[in-house]
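During the second half of the funding period, the structural biology subgroup turned its attention to how the target accommodates small molecules. The most pressing case was flavin-adenine dinucleotide, which had performed well in the primary screen but for which no bound structure existed. We therefore specified the complex as follows and requested a full 3D prediction, including the ligand pose.
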Amino acid sequence: MTADPVRDVVIVGGGTAGWMAASALIKALGNKITVTLIESDEIGTVGVGEATIPPIMFFNKLLGLDENEFVRETNATFKLGIDFVDWRRLGHRYFHNFGLLGAEIRNGTGFIQYWLRSIAGNASADPSTFSAETLAAAQGLFGRAGRDNSGLPNINYAFHFDASTYAAFLRRYSERRGVVRREGKVVGVEQDGESGNITFVTMADGRRIKGDLFFDCSGFRGLLIGETLGSDYESWNHWLLNDRAIAVPCERTEQTTPYTRVTARKAGWQWRIPLQHRIGNGHVFADSFIKEDEARDILLANVDGKPLADPRTLRFTPGRRRRCWVKNCIAMGLSSGFLEPLESTSIHLIQVAVMKLIAFFPDRRFDPIVVDRYNDEMNLLLEAIRDFLIAHYHVTERDDSDYWNYLRTMEIPTSLADKLELFRTRGETLPGPNELFSEISWFAILWGQGIRPTGYHPVADAMPQDDLNLTLDRIRAAIQQRVAGLPMHDDYIRQNCASA
Ligand code: FAD
């Protein structure tokens, strides 16, 4: 039992970040703390953010959510990975699959290394027959589990969902468990003269809300973390050129695909995210390389359903808050930084931030060792995601615009240069413990973008050739069997997630 416990938590902001933080805190610490969330209907939320990655399942499990209910309430579809179109060169595509590639081979190195040995330098070899998620996605199939007893893990998946209904869903969850919502605008912040800690936020109607610990979930503005506490924003715009997005929801047209599609354009890329009731589309682009009107025209010329609303432009600076936790305030969501949604990492970063905060939950002394450790870990995580994103642009053969020529030839962070060098020579990237993307994800991107390793791990040579052939044949057959017989994605949703 700590001597000086945090009792009152105040969350400023009710977008995805605010309600994710509120729901997780009330679930984990509800009998120890009060949670008040302030949001302004007038300001509203950013209202995009529709694709996720598999670890969101852990968040849903923490909350104890029924997944079918969650899919139903948020108009969600299932996501098996991302279809990358025109990234390596025009006319080329590859798939970044969730889940494993192949299967675990208990001989000291990973499946990829055995596969690299097996293809004997064949540059056009295709690893996709070893990914159940890729095979299922290509046929529009989905099921949570396989139907065989091969020992392979279950199909790995995430969701596409409607961000505003997700926030509403979490709001209902949180309020039922005691989170108090205050509607209105925060116009002032009071700080303790000695420590500098935030003590109250003041609302436009004069209400003062007291807290021991504050969460800044106020969106791009960073009301507390930036404007009050002065944590600098570090721009990564010289590596990640995109700083605008135009989003437009469209009518649903056909069977929903169980994957996100991202298509590279001359100065950016376009997303296509299928939900049950509509398709989310957007064009993320670099303002210094293309005019907004042209970016909008490209978007509207490449959507496959009728637009349901006027296109909306969002501006952002790619980068991060140097310190997300300052004194008694922690920034989560857009107030803590933003990396473009190419690999759907923002909602995941909110999840990590809130889970880590629960793990590091402070008392009112706000021990600098705890605060520094939190900031260091979040920074490492973000830098590794930044490198992963940069790799998508830098490793390309595209030379059809100034944008691609800049990205292909620019100087990259040393941390990424080292990874690319390792991959070129050994076919591995050795992600560290604080990294989100695994060896399999790095392989999907770097192989997909065209790098062909010249070597592989020496342990892969230890297996006799016949054993290797048999092992790979067995794994390939088990994966094919796993996918055969899966239902169509829409049928699966209808049968499992529809209202009772
Ligand atoms: P917001 O949604 O902006 O919420 C801010 C909240 O603060 C609002 O409730 C607002 O009312 C409140 N507020 C602000 N100022 C005040 C004040 N003075 N007083 C009271 N309340 C205040 N993420 C993904 O994971 N996957 C994706 O596919 C994805 N796509 C994206 C596409 C684009 C173009 C953009 C810009 C982002 C995308 N994201 C994606 C990111 C995702 O949308 C955000 O991370 C997520 O919505 C969290 O936003 P937020 O809650 O931090 O901010």
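Two results from this model are relevant to the next phase. The chain has a mean pLDDT of 95. The domain at 8-50+162-235+319-366 is CATH 3.50.50.60 (FAD/NAD(P)-binding domain).
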